[in-house]
Each structure stands twice: as C-alpha cells, then as structure tokens.
Amino acid sequence: MASLTASRISPLHFPNLSSSNSRIRKVGFRVYAAENNPEPDLSVKVNGLQLPNPFVIGSGPPGTNYTVMKRAFEEGWGAVIAKTVSLEADKVVNVTPRYARLRAESNGSPKGQIIGWENIELISDRPLETMLKEFKQLKKEYPDRILIASIMEEYNKPAWEELIERVEETGVDALEINFSCPHGMPERKMGAAVGKDCALLEEVCGWVNAKATVPVWAKMTPNVTDITQPARVALKAGSEGVSAINTITSVMGINLNTLHPEPCVEGYTTPGGYSCKAVHPIALAMVMQIAKMMQSEFNNGEYSLSAIGGVETGGDAAEFILLGANTVQVCTGVMMHGYGLVKKLCEELKDFMRKHNFSSIEDFRGHSLQYFTTHTDLVRRQREAIEKRKAIRKGLASDKDWTGDGFVKETESMVSN
Ligand SMILES: Cc1cc2nc3c(=O)[nH]c(=O)nc-3n(C[C@H](O)[C@H](O)[C@H](O)COP(=O)(O)O)c2cc1C
C-alpha cells in the first residue's frame, strides 16, 4: 500500500466542486481506517445528474439502438451517451468495411494486441423518429438512470432548435453536442467543421444553449492546435461541460501486398478517426490542458469535464480523474470487450482508491494537475534539487565546522552507504 502524507491527500486539488467528503485523514490512522472503511464510493454528481459510477458509454456503436443501450444500463454503466443523431438520417450513408485495427506487433499481425482503431463511420443512419422512440422507452424503463443524447446538425439555427426540442421531449437527461465528427460530416459543415472554427462554434453553441433546458456538454475534436481554445469558447457560450476527445485524424496503414490503404472500400479509403489505447496519452494531455484552463478560468463548481480516449482499465480512468475529469467515457473498449467491461472498470477503480485510502471520486479528482508545469520551471527545480543534493553530500568543509549538537547528523552527511 503506498503511503500518503496527510498534506498530500487532505486538500482538494481541483476545487471547482465542493467536496462531499472533506474529512481529514491522519497517516497514523491509515491502517485502522483502511480496515474499517466502507467500500469506496464511485458515485458522482455532475451538472445536477446523479451517476452510480463515473463510467459512461461514449457515443458510437455501443449506444446505437434500444437493445444495446438497455444492455449498458443492465450491466451497470453510470450513464449512456447514444450514437449521434441528426434530423435527416437518410443523408447518412455508411460504407463497409469501415473499421481498421492496429496491433502491437507488426502491422496486420493477427496475434498482436489491438492498440489502435480507425473508423470511417458516420453518425447514426437510423431514422430520428426511431431513435427518439427508443430514448423515450429507455427513460420509461430506467427513469433513474442517465441517458444523454448526442446531437449534430448543419449550420442552420432552426434545424438545431428543432432537433433539440424533439430530443428533449423524450426525457433525456442531457445533451452532448458533437462538434467533433471528423469525417463525412465536415463536408456538410457539421461536426469538426464547427468545432475547429471558434467563431462558428461560438455562434452554434449560443443557439444550442439558448434553446436547451437540460445540461449541455460540448464534445471537442482533438484535430486542432490548441484544444483549450474551442473548450473555452463552448463554456463561455453557456455549455455546462466539455467532453474530450473525439477521434484523431488517421490513416491506419497501407496493405503492402495489395498497395491499397485500410480500411479498404472498393480499393479506396478516406482518412478516418483514431481511437483505442494508442490515443490515451494524447487524450490525457488534452484533458490536462482543458482542466488547467477550467481551473483557472471557470472555477466556480458549475462546469464539468468528461474525459474520453483509450480507456480499458480502471487505472486508465483513474488517470483521467486525477487530471480533473468528472466522468470517463468508453467507446472502443466496449466494442472490443463487451458491456461487462464496466464491472472490471469499477473493481479496478475501487482497488486504486483502496490502495490510496480514497473514499470518494472527489477525494482525488484533479490531484495530479498540480504536477504539470513549464519546461523552464522543470529546469529551475532540477537545478535547485541538484544544488541541495550537492550541499548534503559535501558534508563538512573543514574540521573546525564540527558541532556538539549536530555531531551525529554531521557524521552521517559524510557516510557513503
Ligand atoms: C466506430 C466509432 C463510431 C463513433 N461514432 C461517434 C459518434 O457517432 N458520435 C461521437 O460523438 N463520437 C463517436 N465516436 C467517437 C467516440 O465516442 C470517442 O470519442 C473516441 O472513439 C475515443 O474514445 P475510445 O478510445 O474510448 O473509443 C465513434 C468512435 C468509434 C470508434
């Protein structure tokens, strides 16, 4: 069990949410407290929504119809974000194959672990009316569970207003706005075309937030130079939260036998979106940047951050939470491991919490943000640390420096082992 000093664990390091558990722990009581502590509490409250745990089905195939969303609730996911819907599903035409995987061994080896996943899938191709009926049915069967609709429309205010009105009528708990779909949709000035253009984003976010009566999370594209810029715009325009990241522009590879790229559709492809384990470090960096920006500019407890990218273990989720995330979304992980993954995620996150004697998510949310600084500051810290070590190692410069009080310490300062 790693030992934490009271000063490391007692303050809330991401103080934009008031702690539900502000009890002070003392190191001396750790073992006693750990033995008698109740189960770590995974529940989270975010933008007024109560979730049994922070694990949320990310928008995509795992939230594509009634059957699979019901399954997600049954297995215990904290919330479900449905596959993105728009007014006119008949404009959405998918191709097959539309996925390609990267394995840890040489590209294409059937044995290597899957670490990267490219998709060229569009938003939902199911009629809006059908999806709305299913949202309504799910909210009827699971009134206490959190169902979030992911929505996207063209650059057209009345269309956005109609979509929001019709989706909200079903009783969904929140909206995630897909400002990040990387393929197909930008050709219609949708998704990432809006998310990459801060002026457009501000305008569309303004329309959305003027109309919506439930919390709004703006989902960010990572395919920008500085993700804090659109995140700031979305929050300033009235969104309650930010979700990050959607997929990263990618070409999975070229088949060296056929010379055609993957995923190969009639001999051709188009760049797609990259997800899975390989994007996790990139997502961590972007979530950290957004969290730091939110901490300094939107630090009044009203705003939330939903982290996404390459989560397959409770440890992956703990990392996002340590960087300030309120919730953690999983998409590709569910496509590879199934809906039961949530049980493993919860157990592993609880193990992590037990190890550090954290009793709630708020106990450690944002803790590790404080360890990010500039390179210049790293150089300064290292120089200081080296000087300190040298001073300690040096011992006494002269025999005249021995003192009576410090004699033992002075002796130790000159011992090498
Ligand atoms: C096949 C597939 C389809 C997706 N469809 C959507 C979508 O309709 N709307 C959306 O906002 N994100 C969509 N995403 C993006 C995911 O929600 C998520 O942001 C991304 O895949 C990174 O998380 P992951 O590594 O857990 O998959 C899709 C991802 C995949 C792999």
Describe this structure in words.
By secondary structure, this protein is an alpha/beta fold. It is 36% helix and 15% strand. The chain has helices at residues 6-9, 30-36, 66-75, 128-141, 157-168, 192-195, 198-211, 228-236, 280-297, 314-322, 332-337, 341-356, 375-394, 407-412; strands at 44-46, 49-51, 55-57, 79-81, 99-103, 114-119, 146-151, 174-178, 216-219, 241-244, 248-250, 253-254, 261-262, 272-275, 304-308, 327-330. The strands form four sheets. The chain has an eight-stranded parallel beta barrel with strand order 3-4-7-8-9-10-15-16, surrounded by eight helices. Strand 12 (253-254) and strand 13 (261-262) form a beta hairpin. Helix 5 (157-168) crosses helix 7 (198-211) and helix 7 runs parallel beside helix 8 (228-236). The protein is globular, with a radius of gyration of 25 Å. Residues 1-34 have low confidence and may be disordered. Flavin mononucleotide is lined by residues 58-61, 83-84, 117, 119, 121, 123, 150, 178, 181, 219, 246-247, 275-276, 279, 308-311, 330-333. It holds the Pfam family DHO_dh. It comes from Aristolochia fimbriata (White veined hardy Dutchman's pipe vine).
Helix content: 25-40%
Radius of gyration based on Cα positions: 25 Å
Distance between the termini: 27 Å
What is the tally of helical segments? 14
Could you tell me the number of beta strands?
A: 16
Poorly predicted spans: 1-34
Relevant terms:
four-stranded antiparallel β-sheet, uracil binding, binds flavin mononucleotide, alpha/beta, eight-stranded parallel beta barrel, Aldolase_TIM, dihydropyrimidine dehydrogenase (NADP(+)), globular, 417 residues, 15% strand
